[in-house]
Amino acid sequence: MKKFVSVLLILSIFLSFCACSPKEKPLKIVTVTDTHFTGNEYFSYEGTFFEANDSNGTGKQIQYNEDLLDAFIQEMLVEKPDFIVATGDLVFNGAKVSHLALAEKFKTLSEAGIKVLVLPGNHDITGYAFTFPNGEPEIAEFITPEDFKEIYADFGYTGAVSYDPNSLSYVYDTGKGTRIFMLDTNVTYGVALGNLSKKSTEWLEEQLIACKEAENHPIVAGHHSLLSHNPRFDFTYKLGNGTEVAELITKYGASLYLCGHLHTQHYVQTETLTDIVGGAFCVYPHRYGVIEFSGESWEYESKTTDVAGYAESIGSTDENLLNYPEFGYAFFYDNAYDQAKETIYSVVNDPELAEKYSVFSAQLNVAYFGGVFSDLDLSFAEDFIAATEGTGWSSYMQTVLLDTKDNIYCQWPAKTE
Ligand SMILES: [Fe+2]
């Protein structure tokens, strides 16, 4: 198995219109998204449900879910950001026990002086929930929006500048010339679609005006993207009125929007706004973003969690964790390979070519989610597309390949100044 070497992705943008002046040391914010946390106690990996998910699902690393989060927390205690902004899909499927277990984990960060802010994704307040104590689904207690506010009272739902009476959106003052706008972008809870309602949009504009009057700079976050990152997935992954919301926030000086939901590490830019989708934390290579604001500039760096280092530090004897770069890559690669193979072998008659294309697809998929295309051989990409044309897998791969070319979707990895 080829070892996939993660690299740090750095994006620097110099803001020309930030009204604030440098105050003390730079504001440091870590963004993390789509943790899809389960909590080991209520989720056994052994059983048919997760086995089925491994081969057909989205490559979520469920087996080591809690270890991954513990590794992230350990890293944060060293990184010491001022804020951690978690942009939704905090838990696997809305189970109250998972939310409570996650809030308990966040306490460690609070106690270390790191302020955690959360907002809900489509998997957090679902109207249904399951746990998997024996690897099989069992109906579990789900949470309401009121429960969400209560469980995460210390993580954004107390002490904010303003709360939207129509949703779970709020604005938090960092005290360093910046306000973080945490938008609840769910159309309705439990549905993947995103939109900001008319009332919430009005509230947002009022708060943007207040932010400007206070000579603060707005940073905006939500679960769904505002801009298009992949045309194939716009319907459920991009905010329905994303263009209008993007226009609104840039009108009041926002230049950075942070989100998740798509699970890929990816960004797009207009002249006025950079929209960054963070790679899903639950998916290899388990990324998070570090942003430093310094006077008139900000810099974004995407990092991967050092799971093996964490395993070693706690004296783990689990070989998968101790060799996590190889194990994590193989897990996600195999997930994509199985899906690709099913389609490709059915339309490509030459077994040697079918295998070559399946391997290429899996590598391309891992690269796409990780946000790094640099070490891929793309010389036979066109032959691959021609040979698999007309299949769903092929049309998905075509959208991914667009990112490897110089067009509007090809903006990662990159550096802008
Ligand atoms: Fe989501």
Ordered list of secondary-structure elements with their pairings:
Elements: E1 9-14, E2 27-32, H1 48-56, H2 65-79, E3 83-86, H3 96-111, E4 115-118, E5 130-131, E6 138-139, H4 145-151, E7 162-163, E8 170-173, E9 178-182, H5 198-213, E10 217-221, H6 234-237, H7 242-251, E11 256-259, E12 266-269, E13 274-277, E14 287-294, E15 297-304, H8 307-313, H9 319-322, H10 324-347, H11 351-370, H12 381-388, H13 392-402
Parallel strand pairs: 2-3, 3-4, 9-10, 10-11, 11-13
Antiparallel strand pairs: 1-15, 2-14, 5-6, 7-8, 8-9, 12-13, 14-15
Helix pairs in contact: 2-3, 2-8, 10-11, 12-13
Bound molecules: fe (ii) ion (FE2).
List keywords for this structure.
Serum Albumin, Chain A, Domain 1, binds fe (ii) ion, seven-stranded mixed β-sheet, alpha/beta, globular, disordered C terminus, Purple Acid Phosphatase, chain A, domain 2, 2 domains
